[in-house]
Amino acid sequence: MGSEGTNKLVAPPPKEVFWNAREICQIDGFWFYADFKESMAAFRSDFQPRSDDVLVTSFPKTGTTWVMALCHNILHRDDRVEDDVLTRMNPHELIPTLEVFFLTDQVQKDLVLESSGGGRLLQTHLAYTCLPEAVKNSGRGSKIVHVTRNPKDTLVSMWHFYNKVFECPAGGTSPFPMEGAVESFCSGVLPWGPFYEHVVGYWEESKKRPDDVFFLKYEDLCRDPKEHVRKLASFLGKPFPPVGDDEEVEKVLWLSSLGRLKELEVNKNVVSKLTQIPNSSFFRKGTVGDWKNYLTPQMAERVDQLTQLKLHGTGLSL
Ligand code: A3P
């Protein structure tokens, strides 16, 4: 074999530095933090799904924290006594991102634990095509809950989040320029990106397998939380009493609400030992349309055009 062929075989994955802060590399069409490569590979090859697993999937900043809290509170609403674990643990510590923390003791322990109250609740940001083959081939039984969000609000939420966790990647006290954030979002070169291919993968799968893949939009949850949480609970096999008897739905919504979680001591001043970032960084405003306060008309137009192009023909609107 000539040197050209050999080079092809050993070519390392493409790499970039995201926001002057973290190295990311492209694997199977999506970008990941380079330092999580080993953990991600282990998750993809070694994870053993169970038929009663619930896997929350999302692109970062689309409502993961909210949906994890909702699923947790729905699944455990019968067995909750006085102790509410979310008062002690941030949802991202309780349900760690599998491809990031797969090799940690906590996740290894969580994965083998016999679950109480109906199945393991798990979470990943991996695109559908990058999920462990065992998950994609697991057939009926194990469930995926996917949440997504308007791309411009996702981008703005991401801008706030990464500015906080990377501590001003532009240097000094300045935030990273929004132009740069728009560029990385639109080019797709960002952790777990590209956004559009990510969301379309789950959307298509939810159309093929609606009983196994539940597709949820952040905006729908905000607009009519009771309706969508009722649908989610039915999908999870834990339906609420009929409409009109709303006490339990309201309780789950309150327990999972931004207002409540944000004010808990654990989410105020604690830097998570597991994620190494302040728990507070997962909670901000939760407002639909907040992008209007941050994007110029030109930036918004650029994202809108890309959204139209990428979602054309899919039947999905965001
Ligand atoms: P904003 O930055 O627009 O406020 P993720 O959980 O995927 O990281 O997404 C974070 C976004 O969800 C943030 O949006 C955050 O404020 C919002 N969020 C976090 N917890 C929430 C909750 N319980 N209810 C509604 N929104 C929530």
TrEMBL record:
EC category: transferase
Pfam families noted in UniProt: Sulfotransfer_1
Annotated ranges, domain Sulfotransferase: 52-315
GO terms of molecular function: sulfotransferase activity
SUPFAM superfamilies, A to Z: P-loop containing nucleoside triphosphate hydrolases
PANTHER family, per database record: SULFOTRANSFERASE SULT
Name of the protein: Sulfotransferase
